[in-house]
Amino acid sequence: MTKAFDAKAQQALLEARAEQALALARRLGADACEFGGSVDQGVGVSVREGEVESVELSRDQGIAVTVYLGGHKGSASSTDASERSIQEVVEKALAIARYTGKDPAAGLADRELMASHLPDLDVHHPWPLSTEEAIELALACEAAGRGEPGIRQSEGASLSSGEGVRIYANSHGFLGTQAGSRHSLSCMLIAEDAQGMQRDYEYSSARSPQALLDPEVIGRRAAERTLKRLGARRPATGRFPVLFDATVADGLIGHLMNAIAGGALFRQSSFLCDRLGDALFPEWFTLGERPLEIGAMASSPFDNDGVQTRDNVFIENGRLASYMLSAYSARRLNMQTTGNAGGARNLRISAPLTPREALLSRMGRGLLVTELMGQGVNGVTGDYSRGAAGFWVENGEIQYPVEEFTIAGNLEAMFKGLEAVGSDTDTRGSVHTGSWLIDELTVAGS
Fold it and tell me: Which of 115, 134, 148, 326 could covalently link to 341 via disulfide, CB atoms 3.0 to 4.6 Å apart?
């Protein structure tokens, strides 16, 4: 069993190192300085065919210092958090700053924007789990899946459990720390019929170990998903409605957030440049973030600039209401930060939700997509093309599995063509969404 993680001790150590770095940078002539640090510890085990395949005990730490000197910026980092290392990192950052070009947008976020409300968001739930206990849970998960009739073999089950502390401080006097945890259990299985082998998986992930699904449930669900893929064919080529399963629909939200991120906007590499106020979705669709949600996967009271996080609405009644900006990207765009340095936190949809069966009935004839492959998304044009697998639907009912086909369209047209969102919300990640029914995409199959 690995040594227990002392979050309070690690927090105190990082705070001391932050104070040392800021004081040294000021003494060496920096106009401003920011410090980030983290320490993480965890255990991970994987089993396959009833045998232990790997056991990993990890402990990682890192520090990063950024200094600003007369409009110049320099950054340096290290995995060593000793006092000597702090001095070397600060000196390197200053040396780098003296050689970088001047950037008027560089610098700390404004002092008045620093987070002052730092509540406990209940995101730290340690799991005092021995290696032996972790192995037992993974074995039980795999055994439940392997025991289902029709399962030929296993690709394995894995359990990971980790916790850590992160800190951000800057020369405005801001210092924020947060301890957090993340636990997961997964299983992947293989089934075979006359047409060949198929594989699929199931997983559970949560801040608290008590929120994980039972290992046997995960194993059985992995088996069920795998067996459903047997007998897969290629679908017909044509234009069809597509229902994105909840497990892949979050990717569509991810593409949207990438397009409204400040970095893509000031580089003019997004199809949503200068589109604030434009109608992108149906009027019934609203999308926002809740960074202060208790116990959620991405909750934080401050962003990577130390700015107070807040609820933001990005799509309001179908219209693009806000971009996603850090202090730097906001300056480049002559706008204000939205508290999103480091990305969006806990994205949530507000919309009428439709049961999965009703979505299939409404679709009538088309594709239910449960897996996507490849990276065929052009952020500049919004063009979308991905390899996919899933199920063919006729008369509102699933008929047979399909694979080896491509779906293609344009993200803006897909957003406008969103007909309904399912009530089968997947809550395992930081993006919560149900299935998405898109009116029509090009399918390249047989």
Answer: 326
- Asked if pLDDT for residue 195 goes beyond 90, the answer is no
d(C-alpha 312, C-alpha 325), whole Å: 11
Instruction: Find the DSSP H helices in 170-319.
Output: 215-228, 246-259, 262-266
For 289, the enclosing helix (H) or strand (E) is: strand 286-289
Q: Which residues belong to CATH 3.30.2290.10 in the chain?
A: 7-227
The distance of Cα 9 from the centroid of its chain, to the nearest Å, equals 28
Phi-psi region for residue 374, left (φ > 0), alpha (ψ -120 to 50) or beta? Answer: left
CB 330 within 8 A of CB 259: no
pLDDT digits (tens, 9 = 90+) for 413-446: 999 999 999 999 999 999 999 999 999 999 998 7
pTM of the complete model: 0.95
List b or e across 301-330, with b for residues whose CB sees 16 or more CB atoms inside 10 angstroms: bbbbbbbbbbebebbbebbbbbbbbbbbbb
Can you list the alpha helix ranges (DSSP code H) found in 147-245? Answer: 215-228
Residue 194's pLDDT is what? 82
The answer to whether 286 touches 350, Cβ cutoff 8 Å, is: yes
Residues 252 and 249: their CA atoms lie apart, in Å, by 5
The whole-angstrom separation of Cα 399 and Cα 49 is: 32
As assigned by CATH, the class of the 7-227 domain is: alpha beta
